[in-house]
Specification:
By secondary structure, the chain is of the alpha+beta class. The model has no long low-confidence stretch (mean pLDDT 92).
């Protein structure tokens, strides 16, 4: 785990396999990496998640919709009466 902001940036860039300079360029452009579709997106396509340091969810809205559709299992409805 990174102990400083700069260490966190270096660690995140290494995890993505890109240079720190390119990672900082994406941050300066107000973009975030989506863990669902594995691409960079503007911050406005991420939902709110106040438990995360940046206040944004880890997955973009579209990737979240795809995940929900893929994992949805309908429950059989219970009928009451004849």
């Amino acid at each position: 785990m990174a102990q400083t902001r700069e260490g966190a940036i270096i660690s995140a860039a290494n995890q993505l396999g890109i240079s720190v300079r390119i990672y900082k360029e994406h941050l300066d452009a107000r973009e975030k990496w989506c863990i669902g579709c594995k691409t960079w997106h503007p911050l406005n396509v991420f939902g709110a998640d106040h438990s995360r340091p940046d206040g944004k969810a880890a997955m973009c809205i579209n990737a979240r919709k795809v995940l929900y559709r893929r994992t949805y299992k309908p429950h059989p409805s219970e009928r009451h009466g004849p």
